[in-house]
Fold this protein.
Amino acid sequence: MHRSVFHLRLKNFELQAERMMDTSLQTRAVAIVSSNRQDGTIVSLSNEAQEEGLYLGMSRSLARQMNRRVLMLPYNHSLYSRLNRYLYSTVSSFTPVVEPGSFGQFYLDMNGMNSVYKNLQNTGTRLARTIDEKTHLKGAVGISTNKLVSTISTSVIPEIVHEVFPGDESSFLSPLDSWMLPTVQQPPVKKVIRFLFLNKIVHIQSVVRHETDAQVLFGKFTKKITLEAEGKDLSAVRPPQLKEHITEQVVLPTDTNDKDELRSAVMTLSGQVGFRLRKRRQIAKNVRMEIHYTDGIKRSKTGKLDAIDTTSISKVLQQLFDRANTRRNRIRTILADASRFAYHTTQLDLFSHSDRKDIRLSHAIDTIRKKYGMKSIY
């Protein structure tokens, strides 16, 4: 029996959310910008705004110079998060296995649901209709045997529901642009694609059929791009509740690349992560430091936390931040994500050491924060 994976995409999710909240925006030229600063960029825009000459990724300052009739709205992360959580609960009524993607995107694992839903296309139509009735948001549903093909389907097919039948994945992908494949975005692969003018997936398919030639061209990416070009993807749909993480983030008051402000933000993150680790009495075998720049680009580095005092944690997170921060652009958000926990055990010492002083200091600060709140002491 073949797998069945749905991908629900609510196109222009941010714009649709703003128009749902304010019906007067329905026919206006609207653009959602990442920041109100001059270096903010457009992340979503209406058809009316496109007709005015604006496009995704355009800087706010340039868009304002070109056209002052377009309404520029700031990125409302709080609104989009609340709406996305409601959509997740709605989508979860169709299947117990749902994985949220970015805002307005969800993967549904429909395996084993044959006795409930007899026809996949009818189920996809029902899913889109349910979302429309409850939120007035328009969406498209892609159906295939895996997440990759379903995702590509919703990005290139204008139909509300489109199913790629098992065995047709390769022929479905062949006429599409090469840039649809995720591995093509890797710099070494992108360089080869441009140099050889492999503009369509069918061109990549013809290359990867010759394993030796493909190995020379794509190196360590050969296996991955071969699978993607043939429409094969073995990744599972993973519900968020199956992942145990400690996630903390600091949203800077204004986008900045000031070293002192960024170091202060990393210290704040260290305190928050340390407080939660000490509460669990656990260390983290994996920690990821992620930086979100003002133009929407993300950078991240990973490491591990072998201690639970704030001083040790801040040293690790600061090192990861310095390694990840390779651009000169301003930074909007810094996020720390800890996972793979293990119990932290310590042995008492006869003599005082600096690391014991650090942990005693951290516990003392925790006592104050438990009584007066996290923001009571820095």
In short: The two ends are 57 Å apart (CA to CA). The CA atoms of residues 197 and 203 lie 9 Å apart.
